[in-house]
C-alpha cells in the first residue's frame, strides 16, 4: 500500500501536520537552535551558518540541486521575493548537495543575488532532520533523465534533502519551519513573506 506524505507547516508553535512516512523525517521545529554546521560557498570557502545568523536573520532554503527543474523554478521565485525579504532585514541562503563547482551554474542561470551553499556531505541536511536516502528505483529513474546525483555532489551517499524552509532569528532560533516530501510542491513566495513578517 502506498504511503502518503503530508507537508509539515509550523508557524508560531502551531503544528498543522506531521510526516507519514517510513523514513520518519523529523525536521527541526520552531524554538530549536540551528545546528553548528560548516558549508561551502561557490568559491569553496567555509561558511558558518550560526555566525551568519548572528549578523542578521536568515531565510534558509534547502533544495535538491541545480539539476532539479522544480528547484530551479523555486530559486527563481525566491529571487523575485529577495528584495522584499532584504527590506525586512533577512538574508537568504539556499543549500543543496551540489558541489561548490556546481553552485555557480545555478546562480548564473537565474542571476541570483542571494547566497548558494554546498552541503555535499549532507551534514547540514542531516542536522536539520531533512535528509533521506534515494532508493535504487529512484536512482534509475533519475539516470533515465541523465541526472547523476553522485556527479552533482561528488559523493556516493545517495542522500537528498526534503525541500524545506527555515526562518531563523539573530538569536539562532528557528521561528518558522516548513518541509514537504513532495518535491513538486514548494512554499509560495507570498506565504514565505507573510511568515517572515510574522517572525519579526
Short key terms for the protein model shown above:
alpha+beta; globular; Glutaredoxin; 200 residues; 7-stranded mixed β-sheet; single chain
Q: Mind explaining what this structure looks like?
A:
With 200 residues, the chain is an alpha+beta fold. It contains seven helices and eleven strands. Mean pLDDT is 86; it is low at 1-23. The termini are far apart. The strands form three sheets. A seven-stranded mixed beta sheet has the order 2-1-11-10-5-6-7. Strands 3-4 form a two-stranded antiparallel ribbon. The chain has a two-stranded antiparallel ribbon with strand order 8-9. Strand 10 (164-168) and strand 11 (174-179) form a beta hairpin. The protein has one domain (8-199): Glutaredoxin.
Instruction: Give the tally of structural domains.
Output: 1
Estimate what percentage of residues fall within beta strands.
15-25%
Distance between the termini: 43 Å
Helicity range: 25-40%
CATH superfamily caption: Glutaredoxin
Order of helices and strands: EEEEHEHEHEHEHHEEEH
Label the CATH architecture.
3-Layer(aba) Sandwich
What layout of secondary structure does this protein have?
Layout: E1 8-11, E2 14-15, E3 38-40, E4 46-48, H1 49-55, E5 58-62, H2 69-87, E6 91-96, H3 100-110, E7 115-118, H4 123-127, E8 131-133, H5 136-144, H6 149-153, E9 159-161, E10 164-168, E11 174-179, H7 189-199
Parallel strand pairs: 5-6, 6-7
Antiparallel strand pairs: 1-2, 1-11, 3-4, 5-10, 8-9, 10-11
Helix pairs in contact: 2-7
